[in-house]
Amino acid sequence: MGKKIVIIGGVAAGPKAACRVKRLMQDAEVTIIEQDTLFSYGGCGIPYYVAGDVSDEAELRSTSFHMVRNEDFFENAKGVMIMSGTRAMAIDRKKKTVKVQNVASGEEQEVPYDTLMIATGSKPFILPIPGVDLDGVFTISDLHKAIEIKDRIARGKVDNAVVVGGGATGLEMAEAFKDLWGVKTTVVEFMPQILPGIVDKPFAAMLTKHMRDNEVDVFLNEGAAEIVGEAGKVVGLRTANRTIAADIVIMATGVRPRSEIAVDAGLQISPMGAIVVNERMQTSDPSIYAAGDCIEVMHLVTGKKFYAPLGSLANKEGRVAGDNMAGIPSTFKGAIGSFIMKAFDVCIGATGLSLDAALAEGYDADVALTAPSDRAHFFPTESIVCFQMVFDRRTRKVLGVQGFGPMGDGISARIDAAAAYISMGASIDDFGTLEMAYAPPFSAAIDTINAIAYVAENLCDGRLRKTSLESFLAWMEDFESESEWVVLDIRHLIEASPFVEKFGAEKWLAVPYSEIRARYKELPQDKILIIMCGSGTRSFEIQSFLDSVDYPNTLVVSGGLNMLRRMGVDWYLG
Amino acid sequence: MGKKIVIIGGVAAGPKAACRVKRLMQDAEVTIIEQDTLFSYGGCGIPYYVAGDVSDEAELRSTSFHMVRNEDFFENAKGVMIMSGTRAMAIDRKKKTVKVQNVASGEEQEVPYDTLMIATGSKPFILPIPGVDLDGVFTISDLHKAIEIKDRIARGKVDNAVVVGGGATGLEMAEAFKDLWGVKTTVVEFMPQILPGIVDKPFAAMLTKHMRDNEVDVFLNEGAAEIVGEAGKVVGLRTANRTIAADIVIMATGVRPRSEIAVDAGLQISPMGAIVVNERMQTSDPSIYAAGDCIEVMHLVTGKKFYAPLGSLANKEGRVAGDNMAGIPSTFKGAIGSFIMKAFDVCIGATGLSLDAALAEGYDADVALTAPSDRAHFFPTESIVCFQMVFDRRTRKVLGVQGFGPMGDGISARIDAAAAYISMGASIDDFGTLEMAYAPPFSAAIDTINAIAYVAENLCDGRLRKTSLESFLAWMEDFESESEWVVLDIRHLIEASPFVEKFGAEKWLAVPYSEIRARYKELPQDKILIIMCGSGTRSFEIQSFLDSVDYPNTLVVSGGLNMLRRMGVDWYLG
Question: Which positions fall inside the Rhodanese domain (chains A, B) (predicted)?
Answer without folding.
Answer: 511-572
